[in-house]
Amino acid sequence: MKKNILIFIVFLLIAFVLPFVLSVYGIDLVSEIFIMAIFAMSLGLIMGYAGMVSLGHAGFFGIGAYTVALLGPHIPNSYLLLFFSICLSGLLALVTGAIFIRTSKFYFLMITLAFGQLLFALAWQLKQWTGGADGMKVSAPLNLGFGEIVSPIGIYSVMAAAFIIVYLLLRFFVESPVGKIVKGIMENEARMSALGYDVRIYKLLTYTFSGALAGFAGSLYGFYNLFVSPDVSSWMFSGQVMMMVIIGGVGTLIGPAIGAGLFIFLQNFISTYTERWPIIMGALLVILVLVGKGGIIHWFALLKSKIFYKKRKNSDDYAPQHVEKEEVVN
Amino acid sequence: MSLSIFSVQLLTGLAYGMLYFMIAAGLTIILGVMNIVNLAHGTLFLLGSYMAFTFMNQQFSFWIALLLSVAVTAVIGIIIEKLFIRQIYGKELEQVLLTFGLAFVIADTAKWIWGTEPQTMAVPALLDSSISIGPMVFPFYRLFVVLIGCLLALLLWYFESKTRIGAIIRAGVDDRAMVSALGINVGAVFTGVFAFGAGLAALSGVLGGPLIGMYTGMESDILVTSLIVVVIGGLGSWKGSFIGAILIGLIETFGKIWFPSLSMLIVFLLMVVVLIIRPQGLFGREVA
Amino acid sequence: MVGKGKFWSVLFITIMLILSGCSGSAVSNSKSNSSGEKDTIKIGVILSSTGTFAPLAESIKNGFNLYLEENDNKLGGKKVEIKFEDDEANPQVALRKYRQLVKNEKVDILVGPISSAVAYALRDEVEKDKIILIDANAAGNDLSWSKKSDYIYRLSFSNWQNGSSAGEYLAKNVGKTAVAIAPDYPAGKEVVSAFKEAFEAAGGKVVKEIYPKLGTNDFATYLTDVAQVKPELVFTFMAGSDGIRFVQQYNDFGLKGKIPLSGPMEFGDQLILEPTGEAAEGIISGILYSPWLENDENKKFVEAYQEKYGKLPNTFSVGGYDSAKVIDIAIKEAGSTNAEDLIKVLKGISFDSPRGPITIDPKTNNPIQNFYIAKNTKKDNQIVPEVLETVEKVTMPEKAPAN
């Protein structure tokens, strides 16, 4: 526990220092990374944790983004906008989750894909409101009570703060009794069911939570980018965020966030140097799957253990707690 | 709508349906036997198409080009299976990712080799005629595609129910461990199935050439459609794919007339409806 | 607990971020525009090199690079450092690439994009950052109307021009009733509405408008519809592989030769002519460029392009070429690379392009150019758009028509 707090503090320090070290562009980029990290962590929650692989998660992201875009001109209150985004996407997750969770892995993948595409098509089709394929401007100033936040550092602070809040929320959820039950469901659904837990309710809860978080990320994106188009809901985007989760490490809380950072970094810089960036991305993905065994996080743990000659098991944040020696009572 | 117009639409829907059937059949068999979600299947379709295009540019006839492309793609399928797919059996997440990554690599390599400009493929001279349906003129080639689709379905049916290999594959879908325990080389079966699926994708690609041409991004379009067909038809069931593909082909065609503004959504809506009413697809097995 | 593993990875990612942030200049300052004193100029080009627009991206890039090569890699007397970025035809990605080019790489001038959706997304940023954008392709009308900006100048054509140029000729020489077909997205609607206005002003009537979804494979449904309606001509706007398929199927379903097919520039452009071959014979289109145009600029251009790339240039190659040329001329005339100075010169700038003479209309920031009514004719085993009539100085209205 102490280690975690230490790491957390180190992270806070780094996050605090970064804006002073980076260029304006760098600050902008990291702000976007924070948003994507939230999105990735929300997907990581249902993927690594409740075992549900969704190819339509960008749908919720899109809901959040468009809520801000559409309601922005009418509701100048940023808190309200964020609140509505979260509620709307959470509600949608609840409703669709109730239907989708019945289906098993592959079908779940497909039906979530369909869901994402439906939202994409809606955004495209409803031109009078959403601007259709051309997208629309977001004219909602970000105002959290200390005046309009326009500067890169201001936006950065908001996104960093949002990221930290979400991370803590997720941590709390994961370590809570509810969280442990959900983890148990992923490991062995039949057993949990036999133990009397209503598996569906817990899965639904997690899915709703995840959808709400994705919507939150989407709304932040609206404020950050000041422009949204239907592509925020496309299955391509869902696929990309899934890549972020895998790259970072399924089954860990922070993994997807790191994956998001890495992915955006790569997508940005590789494409500048070569037009063949899809080959590089694809090859990286293939290598990662074959060799990675669990993303960057586990890779590093392995690397570290090789360097220090210690035998370590692959550990998850979501793994049941190690029984400390002192706790063993005879 | 007059009868002749209806017939034209019907035949068109069937022709496209058959194309979808060919590629989806491969996808669903691979899924059913090996439990692999091959997201690179669209790129195999693309390869078949482009390779035939190149062969034909080298003065091979359409038919030779067809055979060659299917053969080469099947070989590529064997390579992919042995090199990559082998290592991730049973790991669903990894499969999705690996094949996704492969799709990127193959698609961009194709772009590297063949360039970005959209291409066309000529209808083989033998089939380059049209038949009249009332006042309408209908290209004979499309009828040919429908024919081939039916032939394939017949072939698959025969293969599955009357041959030993077919029985093995059916058994493999049902109970892999048992098949292995019976001393059958499951590995070889898997490689064969994957190659077969790849060949089917290429077949669909080549036959589709004169209809839809070759363009950048075609692999994603066809992949999404074939995934939907597989879902609607049921995993592992080529019969389901047959019905599902025809359904999709027809709905796409008639949907354009009856619900033009919904054309983007119609096929997805259908899939959602099927999944809600019958989550395992039309012909799929009940899944735990 | 994976404490240490996490620590390392967080450290790693932070280092990467710092490196990425610093890979441009670490001096943070929002505006970066050239002082006009440097002798190098940095140009950022945003195109969609992946996805269905890829062929256009390649042509534009080729045209642009050809001009650079012809001019010793200099524009306006200054050495050029060029950076190409792929926006994947996705406005979100485009914005990210934009920030990279403008804030990180500190480019002086931007060129692009292909997609109008991307152009609209970039418009406000370009205004805010006060950086000139030379639009090498995006044809959305609003760039000249509601989204017009002093910083954006189009070197291609607008959907309006594309749709309207052939209207009068067709009404007077081909037929008075037309079915108009275009994909169901903003550009499609814009082209058809421009055609309708020109066609009906000249005495024609658009009896039916059909909008298949973008990316349609199969037009059988719509073609049977046309066969039933029996108009005197069909006007179709379809681009890329959709266009190719349409032309082929028009032939396959027996309409070719029965009902004249016409369209905007796409049906007379190499990108569609080459793959469709004979199926495209007889189509009348309002083109703005063809490699067979008889003017001196074009003769030189086609020769040079063929030598360098081994193929004929198309309309998009000219868009790229002229984008480079206009930057060259503007800098020379303004005597500086400063945005405000360039703006003064770009408005009303005039020069000879391989397509003919063009002038940038200061009221719309859109080129005033010739359009050529051309019929696809077979010549020496090739389908060539043969010019029947030249429509000179085609413009577009200053404001969106009220309707």
From TrEMBL, chain A:
Record-level GO cellular component terms: plasma membrane
The molecule here is called Branched-chain amino acid ABC transporter permease
Q: What is the lineage of its organism?
A: Bacteria, Bacillati, Bacillota, Bacilli, Bacillales
Where does the UniProt annotation locate this protein?
Cell membrane
Q: Which GO terms describe its molecular function?
A: branched-chain amino acid transmembrane transporter activity
UniProt topology in membrane: Multi-pass membrane protein
* Keywords assigned: Cell membrane, Membrane, Transmembrane, Transmembrane helix
Primary localisation category: membrane
Q: Which Pfam families has this protein been placed in?
A: BPD_transp_2 (PF02653)
TM stretches of this protein: 33-51, 58-75, 81-101, 106-126, 146-170, 201-224, 244-266, 278-301
Biological source species: Aeribacillus pallidus
Do you know which CDD domains this protein is assigned to?
Answer: TM_PBP1_LivM_like
Automatic annotation (TrEMBL), chain C:
Q: Which SUPFAM superfamilies match?
A: Periplasmic binding protein-like I (SSF53822)
Q: Which PROSITE patterns match?
A: PROKAR_LIPOPROTEIN (PS51257)
Top-rank taxon of the source lineage equals Bacteria
Coiled coil spans? none
> Leucine-binding protein domain: from which residue to which, for each copy?
40-377
Q: Name one Pfam family in it.
A: Peripla_BP_6
Question: Which keywords has UniProt assigned to this entry?
Answer: Signal
Q: Which InterPro entries match?
A: BCAA_transport (IPR051010), Leu-bd (IPR028081), Peripla_BP_I (IPR028082)
> So what family is this one in?
Belongs to the leucine-binding protein family.
This chain's protein is named ABC transporter substrate-binding protein
Tell me which species this is from. Aeribacillus composti
Taxonomy of origin reads: Bacteria, Bacillati, Bacillota, Bacilli, Bacillales
